[in-house]
């Protein structure tokens, strides 16, 4: 089980996240700016800070797997630019498909060769792993993992509370029957998000490093929600947390 000691060891061993510019500084900044314009309107859990974290994670995974970092960088920066359209259409448009379409146009205007445009568009189109859009290339699998990793662990918890706040949900609802709770309701808490979606993510990773990081982040979420439960119940005990998983 993940502990504070593991966290300290990980901190000590961690190299700074690569935030290089495999596409060149000028083009990277241009794409970053374009991406920011699209994602700022969406804000909240899917604002430009999410894009930057996914970009860092994708480059980290990409370096370990000797993937094409230029493809990954472009794909990560533009991966959610279609989200605004999806929100506007109340989910009838898939933001991954829309994002790939927008990205093709942006990359063409910026003079990227057709082969790179195709590779980047594939990553964006497949980053949700839905229907017939599955990540085939190594870069697409990495982008999928990087995006998923940003929805779990400490960041995932933070994003889940941010979302709960946006829909006006309460702080915690451990005693509710999750099956009887609805999205966008008072019961759509961070804990519900953990039980319904986030706890399943570690089993869906597609790369070895993605799986390793997901395991760690998952353990941290388990500890966090047990601790939350303890504090909600008024416990003053700050001793070690039991190893059993968060109960249903
Ligand atoms: Fe997305
Ligand atoms: Fe995303």
Your description of this structure?
- This protein folds into 2 domains: 118 residues, Hypothetical protein af1432 (Orthogonal Bundle); 86 residues, Up-down Bundle (Methane Monooxygenase Hydroxylase, Chain G, domain 1).
- The protein has 11 helices and no strands.
- By secondary structure, it is mostly helical.
- The model has no long low-confidence stretch (mean pLDDT 90).
- It binds fe (ii) ion (FE2) (2 copies).
- The site of one fe (ii) ion has 5 residues, from helix 3.
Helix/strand order: HHHHHHHHHHH
Which regions contain 5 or more consecutive residues with pLDDT less than 50?
Answer: none
- Distance, first to last CA: 19 Å
Number of helices: 11
CATH superfamily of the largest domain: Hypothetical protein af1432
The CATH architecture term of the largest domain is Orthogonal Bundle
> Could you give the count of β-strands?
0
The proportion of strand residues reads under 5%
Share of helical residues: 55-70%
Task: Give the distinct bound molecules.
Answer: fe (ii) ion
Name of the CATH class of the largest domain: Mainly Alpha
The value of Rg in angstroms is 19 Å
């Amino acid at each position: 089980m993940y502990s504070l000691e593991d966290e300290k060891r990980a901190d000590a061993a961690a190299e700074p996240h690569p935030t290089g510019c495999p596409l060149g500084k000028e083009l990277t900044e241009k794409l970053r700016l374009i991406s920011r314009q699209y994602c700022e309107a969406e804000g909240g859990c899917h604002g430009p800070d999410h894009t930057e974290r996914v970009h860092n994670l994708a480059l980290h995974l990409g370096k370990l797997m000797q993937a094409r970092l230029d493809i990954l960088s472009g794909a990560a920066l533009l991966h959610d630019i279609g989200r605004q359209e999806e929100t506007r259409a109340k989910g009838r448009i898939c933001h991954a498909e829309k994002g790939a379409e927008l990205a093709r146009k942006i990359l063409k205007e910026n003079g990227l060769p057709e082969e790179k445009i195709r590779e980047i568009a594939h990553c964006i189109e497949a980053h949700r792993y839905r229907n017939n859009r599955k990540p085939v290339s190594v870069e697409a699998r990495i982008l999928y993992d990087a995006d998923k990793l940003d929805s779990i662990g400490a960041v995932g918890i933070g994003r889940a509370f941010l979302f709960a706040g946006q829909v006006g949900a309460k702080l915690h609802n451990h005693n509710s029957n999750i099956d009887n709770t609805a999205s966008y309701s008072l019961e759509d808490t961070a804990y519900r998000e953990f039980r319904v979606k986030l706890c399943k993510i570690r089993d869906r990773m597609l790369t070895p490093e993605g799986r390793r990081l997901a395991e760690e982040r998952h353990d941290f979420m388990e500890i966090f929600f047990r601790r939350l439960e303890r504090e909600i119940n008024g416990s003053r005990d700050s001793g070690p947390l039991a190893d059993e998983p968060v109960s249903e």
